[in-house]
Amino acid sequence: MTQVFRLAALVLLALITLSAQAQTLAGLGRPSPGRQVIDGIIVKVDNQIVLRSDLETIYQQQLQQAEGKPLPPDIQCKILQSLTLNKLLLAKAETDSVVVSDEQVTGELNRRMSYFVQQIGSEKKLEEYYNKPLRQLKEELRVQVKEQLVQQKMQDQIAGKVSVTPREVRQFFNKIPKDSLPYYSTEVEVGQIVKLAKPDAKAEQATLAKMNDLRAQILAGASFAELAGQYSEDPVSAKQGGELGFFGRGQLVPEYEAASMRLQPGGLSPIVKSQFGYHLIQLIEKKGNTFNTRHILMKPPTGGTDVDMASQELLKLRTRIQADSLTFAKAAKDNSEDKETSGNGGLLQNRRDGSSYLPLDQLDPAIFFTIDTMKVGSISKPLPYRTDDGKDAVRIIWLKSNTPPHQANLKDDYQKISTAALNQKKNKALDEWFARNRGTVFIEVDPQYADCKLLDTEQ
């Protein structure tokens, strides 16, 4: 069963953090040329189902990752076991009333979509690749993201308190055959502190004046949709006349939602400020707790002076860190405006395993060429760049460590080995949970897959 859980992690990873080059967005991927799959239910776990297309999607991803090497003969059974175990987690979560909030789902969905956009190059390229607007891609992924968060919450409840001691880590490492120790390429730990360029008062006032003018035109009878297509700086919705589609409570930023819920159909909001800029909002329709709106978004422009001010703030922080009056981690936590890294002491995270160790050949080119000539422990000067959501910003970069290629050992790779040992121990806790709970749900398997022995804890 432990091997099954290892594959379960791969299945979740494939469905969650797939790259635009080697993998497809599960449920959104374009069909392979000349390949037609007849879909249908192959496993039922209470009210949860596994489709044949779910199995096929993951299997094709495994083939791509194998790069021509043969896969184990039982790989499809292993994948199906993983999918079934995930459905069992969902089934038990339903009976145990384990839920996640809409805010969590929306935040995680936005984070993942930003990652997909970064991987493929731009929102436009992502839309062109799947021939769908970004908001449709988000809605088609929403159910999967919610299920994955619920599964993770269930796993955290089952094994979240499991920990390992240094002695257990050493015992785990010593059991690995010497000829099976992994070989690691060059890896680095990189931190950043980010400051966004803030528009000055004149830029804010000019943007507000434009928004007020557009609002006056709409109140005088001008078409909101036409003005949105012409002026809105939200490129996705602008193509649809500013229309966003239906969203529920907690799925949009609070300022936007609050203004929308106060409107009647056809009503026009005052100018609303959010983290994305200034909005004019028109309510199209309400259905229960969901609402459909269109908006015009404008962002006050930032210029060289704004970037310079952000750079000056970072220079002061850099000086304090270099004088040992402030640690980089503390400075990042208290000052960085990049939410994804500030809580981690500014360290960039490896999306594959959650560690802070990044393979050198997988770094963002801008970071790679910055650290290429840096010594370990040094901090770069402020560097202008554009955030994933297109904002002007400045950052300083810290090279925490640089580990040359080597075979795994406890001295250099304790964090990775500790993580592996912890995962093994958590898998054991999950095994025991499944042994106790597999008989508490109704399971039906398509006869074609009966030989897979789903939920057999003896495997």
Automatic annotation (TrEMBL):
* Domain PpiC, chain residue ranges per copy: 185-285, 288-398
Amino acid composition bias (Basic and acidic residues), ranges on this chain: 331-341
Question: Where in the sequence is the signal peptide annotated?
Answer: 1-22
**Molecular-function GO term, any one:** peptidyl-prolyl cis-trans isomerase activity
Q: Which InterPro entries match?
A: OMP_Chaperone_SurA (IPR050280), PPIase_dom_sf (IPR046357), PPIase_PpiC (IPR000297), PPIase_PpiC_CS (IPR023058), Trigger_fact/SurA_dom_sf (IPR027304)
Q: Which Pfam families match?
A: Rotamase, Rotamase_3, SurA_N_3
Q: Which UniProt keywords apply?
A: Isomerase, Rotamase, Signal
Note down the stretches annotated as region Disordered.
331-353
Q: Name it.
A: Peptidylprolyl isomerase
